[in-house]
Amino acid sequence: MAPVPEKPARQARYVLTAVVMAGVLVLAASVLIALAFRDNPKGAAGTMLAGAIGGPFHLVDQNGKPFSDADLKGKWRLVFFGYTHCPDVCPTALNDIALALDKLDKAKRGEVGVVFITVDPERDTEAVLKSYVESFDAPIEALTGSSEAVAEAAKAYRVYYAKHPRPDGGYDMDHSAVIYIMDPQGRFTATFTPDTTADAMATRLLKLLS
Fold first, then answer.
1. What is the pLDDT of residue 12?
2. Quick one: 7-209 is in which CATH superfamily?
3. Which residues fall within 8 angstroms of residue 137, CB to CB, at 6 or more apart?
């Protein structure tokens, strides 16, 4: 019997490598953006980079209410992409955001909203998201939608995500874990990276809000 060609297997490895590299590049770019504007009181607002992140999307929140990019305007927003089955990165990020907001006075805290966009719409229904975000002491608007609608939002924010099958038949979601800071005009301003502490978040937000 002739040996089975290895081309499909090689192609699969190439695709996996490309996906991983894409994720690394997204994270690296986000870190560079964060460093570049770390000490600028107004971040990237008013620069060419302000238009590089963000754009049109149309999703629904945990209460079934439509939510689009237009709804970001009016207050500062911390935009984070993740999913409810995430074992560590997502709950840690949302908890750090809640702790950071708790360090602000009541007036400043009211100027900041949190937007959590799922990268796993297959499992993260409105009801699932509603139950999940109630675990965090922060004003979180959790968004979901069709796979196409989520992909539209992720593309606008240059977010990498991919399904990662597990041996038990389930799956996890690989995804970039950058928190985007959008100003009241809906413009990208700065980022928090996964290693940004709650104290550092609060300090940065105070600079931006002043």
1. 42
2. Glutaredoxin (3.40.30.10)
3. 98, 102
